[in-house]
Write a structure and sequence with these properties.
This protein is 29% helix and 26% strand. The chain is an alpha+beta fold and 238 residues long. Strand 3 and strand 4 form a beta hairpin. The longest helix has 17 residues.
Length: 238
């Protein structure tokens, strides 16, 4: 809680005398060792993404998304053409750096330059990306752009409160759970309670250091298995 008070003795938040609105995220690639994160290009990425999602054993990955698996590559390309033109959400494709094969999608959304707040969402990872170093690195790259490159103050993650894997992923990546917004939205004819998570600029140095240590080649054995987990490397209790 802030120790500052105004002339009436009321507590007020910390001063930000040098604050200025942030820039919007650019349509520019983010380069990592395990992946590349690039602006969505329907022409270049539709076939690969459609194939990646069709490789899943079932369609359970679409349950908590706002749309369903399209029945054809052509239909999916049409959807991606619309998404690629969007400014908010600003969609990106996660690529294999060796082959440029599309592995999944992520976006920035609810972009608020005036307050320095940005959300990551519309995450949909194909089977090859799930639980891989590339999926973690993609999230680290997107956070680094928001905090280090653009100077945002708050980075958000929201999901259906019933989506246990998404909630676990947020905590693993270093987000802090903030609570449940009840009856927040209607999705696919269902009522959705939304779980909110965030990382602030004050949290980011610790989270960034954890990513750097986890992604270091020395943290993986000869079979590609991690030696230490993200939470441990951030200094958090298991």
């Amino acid at each position: 809680m802030s120790a500052r008070v105004n002339a009436f003795g009321q507590p007020i938040g910390p001063a930000l005398p040098d604050w200025t609105p942030r820039q919007r995220p650019p349509r520019a690639p983010m380069e990592g060792r395990f992946c590349r994160v690039v602006p969505l290009d329907a022409e270049a990425h539709a076939a690969g993404l459609f194939a990646a999602y069709r490789a899943a054993p079932d369609r359970s990955g679409w349950t908590y998304l706002g749309d369903e698996m399209p029945e054809s590559e052509a239909a999916y390309r049409t959807r991606l053409e619309t998404q690629a033109q969007s400014q908010d959400p600003l969609f990106h494709t996660i690529l294999d750096p060796a082959t440029d094969a599309p592995l999944g999608i992520a976006s920035y959304l609810r972009i608020d330059p005036g307050n320095g707040v940005i959300e990551v969402g519309h995450l949909h990872f194909g089977p090859a990306l799930q639980r891989s170093p590339a999926s973690t690195e993609a999230m680290a790259l997107m956070m680094a752009r928001a905090f280090d490159e653009l100077g945002y103050r708050r980075y958000e993650w929201k999901c259906d409160s019933l989506n246990a894997p998404s909630r676990a992923a947020a905590l693993r990546l270093g987000f802090t759970f903030e609570g449940i917004f009840r009856n927040a939205t209607v999705v696919k004819g269902r009522s959705r309670d939304t779980a909110w998570f965030s990382i602030t600029d004050a949290d980011w140095p610790r989270v960034r250091a954890g990513f750097a240590a986890w992604l270091d080649p020395a943290n993986f054995d000869g079979d590609g298995r991690q030696r230490r987990g993200l939470a441990e490397l951030r200094g958090e209790p298991n």
